[in-house]
Linear amide C-N hydrolase (Paenibacillus paeoniae), 343 residues
Amino acid sequence: MSTAIYLSRGEVKIMGKNQDVPYEGVYLFTNKRGIAKKAMIMSPVMPMEWMSRLGSVTVSQVGKEYPNGGMNEAGLVVEQTTLRSSVYPEVGTFPAIGELPFIQLLLDTCENVQEAIEMAARVRIVDPMSRLHYMMGDALGNCAVLEYVNGEMKVYDKESLPKTILANTPYCDALADLEDTHNGWQRSYDDYARNSMERFTIAAAAASLPVPSGRNSRTVYMLDALTAAKREDTAYSLMYDIADKRLYFRTERSPSLKMLDLAHLDFSPEATALALDLQQPEGGDAGSRLATYDRSLNFRVVQSFFRDPTLTEAFGWNLSDEMLEFLSAIPDSYEAVAQKREF
């Protein structure tokens, strides 16, 4: 399920995210500039190919290059929540990509929301494991929501995005019911959809309050908003401080607040890729706890996710051991390319 909140007030640019899923495994990965990549899509569909222009940190329960969300060094944040009604394009001439690698593509190539919208319009999502909609925010104060309605991409931004909140209801439906204060919710919701609207309403109320400007104060503010919108199965919460290029995180199992400063990371093609298990018992600066990334670590992440009994029963996955090996080896198949930093 999940809830995302973006706030822009003067110099304050922050995004928060609750990941609601009955699975606690979650890792952070660094992603370097100057890496040539190709979407792993079955033929005859043409896969998307690109080169990473920007470094980023991503958070994933699935494995490296399959992020649930993240932030790049230009300050673009891309997050997602489940939207069961999403219908991706079935046919088209644009190159194809999966619904989670799509997030990595945007972080690799786009400095801001406008660039991300333009990139999203040039690819199509195929063979999804899940149906999602996306929230993007940047250091300029811009925010957008991307949804796939009847096979077409729909963008909400500027005047069409008065509430920078995302839960698990189609944005236009959530906004209409939120604003219909006289008649109340006009749609008939099942338990799943009702919970989504409740979280959307709670998050919208929290986001309407004044946002403090101090670093610690705005962090507490966003975490309080996420706490108000959490569910029993909230696995972890993130707070992206876009202006300061910092990621704050805590998990349900390890609730002490941790922080990672992107300014202290090396995203050059020659740098060592790093990873971090977010289930860190101690709070504070997590930079020194980053470990060298390798394929065996990624295999453990991939295997743990796709062999989890609860998730397997819920989603009906039946991936072979060979497929898990293939997924975990994808990052090692990419090639570093010499590149100058462009911003």
Q: What stands out?
A: The two ends are 35 Å apart (CA to CA).
